[in-house]
Structure formats: structure tokens, C-alpha cells
Design goal:
Length: 402
């Protein structure tokens, strides 16, 4: 239950108002998570619930507002619902039985959005208890060619809920398994040194998420991990032999590069996260654009952080990266900043996007952000890669992935 939401598959319910999305999600979960009412538009904001879906594993169920909401507020709710498409690993599109009773096909809102994102989905025809059994048999017969992709449900019929649950598990098990962080890079029994500076940006009493996840990945794959502060790194290296990889916080890239010998491989937590959840080839194109920003008149850069936190004078995204770019580029650079889910859909005017390691995002979200950048012709890169480039050690930091 402590699995971060970023590492859970996101199952998101879509459909018009009052088709029973909330009731279905509540029945699947076994808890009254979403508010249920006969009044249209009861769900006005996304509602999520993390749980263990057996026999699959940790997931997040998300309920959304109706895709047909109206009025000025309704349009904002629909926009918020559409934003969830980028984080969905599996979509459940719910139709009311009365919507399709006389239909000859099953065209529905968001179908093109699903196809654009290559998003697997399940069609659910709900409220089957509202029509006669013989009429239901006729409707099922009409759609028999699509029957494997359609689940007929009623919250009054536990058997239909069980079928939907089974269909969800089957779809999830068919998804591509997410890569490990370094389990496929380092052999069993290998040695990895993790360099963790404890500065003002480090939360007191705990490690940040990428550090925790990397330690767990080492444990999962039988890799021996040694965690040290940068101030003890030199001593730690002298204690160890045959180190396979040194992973550092990006802030001390330059220092670590000088301390460890040239035969040791070196990279950062941010670049490892980017490799797992993003696309290093696309990020490399972003570095190429960074190198040529001085050829653009007043270049504009978007710096994107996936989590929210208080800012400090040592902040990577808002202080260190702009400061580094200003030293590299002999022109005035305009910086915009965004956090969390507020990734702009309109990227016109940007020359480069620099994204954090995305430890708080699931892979689907990151890949859709990369896709959006590609479609808009705006290169995207990663915090760690920018800092490695600025330190003059990008080639070394990328060597482990070649």
C-alpha cells in the first residue's frame, strides 16, 4: 500500500454525466469513494483511490467529471477530465444502456483521443437492470462482433462487476512491463555507490523518492548498494573495489566526477529516472537545441517540475539550471516555470522544454508530454542531462546506457 502513485497503473473512468461512473468505481473498489447522486454532474472534480487490485497489484482508480458537462464551469471540468488522458494506463468508457439501445454502432466521445495516445480501453454499457432481459439479449446480439471488448454491467449484479474486474486485470496484464531503474544495467551482485548530499533541499529524516526507489531496485535485483554523502565519498571509494556504477545527485556532478577514477561509470538519479520513464534519444535532441540557443533571438525555455515544494536559493529548476544556461548562452533567455499537472498544452513560442526526472509521474504521463513536444516541434530534455552537460561530463553520464 506504500507504493507511490507514480509506480501504479492508472485506471480512469470516462463518460457522460449520470451514466454511473462513480457507482461502478465504488462497487469495484468496495468503498464509497465517489459521491453518487441522480443529479447530473455530481462528480465535478477527479476523485482517485489507490488500492491493491488482485491478482494484478497496486493501481489507482480515478473517477472523472462528465465529458458532456455544460456552461463556463462545465467547460473547465471537461478540460480537467481531458488532462487525465495523459496519465491513463487504461481507460474505462461508460455508456448508459439507454444511449445505445437503438444504436447501430458504438461511436463515442474520446475515441480519437484514446487512439492518438495508443491508450487501451474497455467499453462498459451500464445500467442493464433498467431494461427487460429480452431487450438486453437483443442489444448484446447486435454488438456480438465487439462483445469481447464490451462489458455489460449493473451495480445490482455482482456477477457483471466481477466480469469488469476480470477484464481490467486481463488488460493490465497485457500492458508492457515497466523497465527497472538499473536492474538491466548492473549484473547480479554488482556494486553501486549512491551519493546523497544532505543539504537544505533534502527533507529532514528521510530520503527523496528517486533515492528510495533506486535503493529498492538494487535490493530487487541483488545489487549491493552503498549510500554515502558527498563529503564521505572519497573515503567510501577507497574502501571499495570493482564499483560498477556511481549514481549522484545532479547538484554535485562536477565534484563527484573529480573524486572518482575515470574507469568508474557515473550518472545521476535524474538521468536514471529519465531513462526508465522517458526517452533518452529525445532528451539528447533537447541537449542539441540547448547548445544552439545562442543562435536564437531571445530564446524562451519552459522548465517543468513534476512535484510541488517550497523554493530555496539552491532550487534546481528555478535557480541552478537558469543560472547554468545564462553562463552558457550569451543572450537573454526567457524562462517560464510550471509544476505538477500544469504542463501547457500549447507550446507555441517555446524553444526548449527542460523536465525534471519525473519521479512523481507515471511513465504514461511522461511519454505523452514527450509526444506533445514532438508534435509541436519543441525539443525536450532532462534536468540531469542539462547539469551533466554544464559540468562537461554528459558523455560520461550517458555511457552506462549505451
Amino acid at each position: 500500500m506504500k507504493t507511490p502513485n507514480a509506480n501504479r497503473k492508472h485506471i480512469i473512468f470516462y463518460g457522460k454525466r449520470n451514466v454511473g461512473k462513480s457507482s461502478l468505481m465504488n462497487r469495484l473498489i468496495g468503498q464509497e469513494v465517489s459521491l453518487v447522486s441522480d443529479i447530473k454532474g455530481t462528480t465535478t472534480d477527479t476523485v482517485s483511490k489507490a488500492m491493491e487490485l488482485l491478482p494484478f497489484g497496486p493501481v489507482v482508480f480515478v473517477d472523472t467529471g462528465g465529458i458532456d458537462d455544460e456552461g463556463s464551469l462545465g467547460e473547465l471540468r471537461v478540460e480537467k477530465t481531458r488532462k487525465t488522458l495523459d496519465s491513463a494506463d487504461l481507460a474505462i468508457y461508460v455508456l448508459d444502456i439507454e444511449e445505445v439501445e437503438d444504436a447501430q454502432d458504438l461511436e463515442f466521445e474520446l475515441k480519437e483521443d484514446f487512439q492518438l495516445r495508443k491508450l487501451p480501453y474497455i467499453l462498459v454499457i451500464n445500467k442493464t437492470d433498467l431494461i427487460a432481459e429480452e431487450r438486453l439479449v437483443e442489444i448484446k446480439a447486435r454488438f456480438k462482433d465487439l462483445y469481447k471488448e464490451i462489458i455489460f454491467t449493473s451495480i445490482e449484479d455482482e456477477g457483471s462487476i466481477a466480469k469488469l474486474r476480470e477484464a481490467i486485470v486481463e488488460k493490465l496484464e497485457g500492458l508492457e512491463e515497466e523497465e527497472s531503474l538499473i536492474g538491466d544495467l548492473i549484473p547480479y551482485g554488482g556494486k553501486v555507490v549512491l551519493v546523497v548530499p544532505l543539504d537544505k533541499a533534502a527533507p529532514k529524516g528521510r530520503l527523496i523518492l528517486p533515492q528510495v526507489q533506486l535503493i529498492r531496485d538494487c535490493l530487487d535485483h541483488g545489487i549491493k548498494s552503498y549510500v554515502v554523502r558527498d563529503t564521505e565519498l572519497e573515503s567510501a571509494i577507497s574502501d571499495l573495489k570493482d564499483v560498477d556504477l556511481v549514481v549522484t545527485d545532479s547538484k554535485v556532478f562536477k565534484y563527484v566526477d573529480k573524486v572518482i577514477s575515470r574507469d568508474m561509470k557515473l550518472t545521476s538519479f535524474s538521468i536514471i529516472m529519465a531513462n526508465q520513464k522517458g526517452d533518452l534519444k529525445e532528451f539528447a535532441k533537447g541537449i542539441t537545441r540547448l547548445k544552439s540557443l545562442d543562435q536564437i533571438d531571445r530564446p524562451r525555455v519552459l522548465i517543468m517540475e513534476s512535484c510541488s515544494h517550497n523554493l530555496s536559493h539552491e532550487d534546481i529548476g528555478r535557480v541552478k539550471i537558469p543560472g547554468l544556461i545564462d553562463k552558457l548562452i550569451a543572450k537573454e533567455v526567457v524562462y517560464d516555470f510550471a509544476m505538477g499537472k500544469d504542463f501547457p498544452q500549447d507550446l507555441e513560442g517555446y524553444d526548449l522544454v527542460i523536465h525534471c526526472g519525473s519521479c512523481m509521474l507515471n511513465k504514461k504521463t511522461m511519454l505523452n508530454r514527450i509526444r506533445l513536444c514532438r508534435e509541436n516541434g519543441v525539443p525536450i530534455t532532462n534536468y540531469g542531462m542539462v547539469l551533466a552537460y554544464g559540468a562537461g561530463i554528459l558523455d560520461r553520464a550517458m555511457e552506462i546506457f549505451s
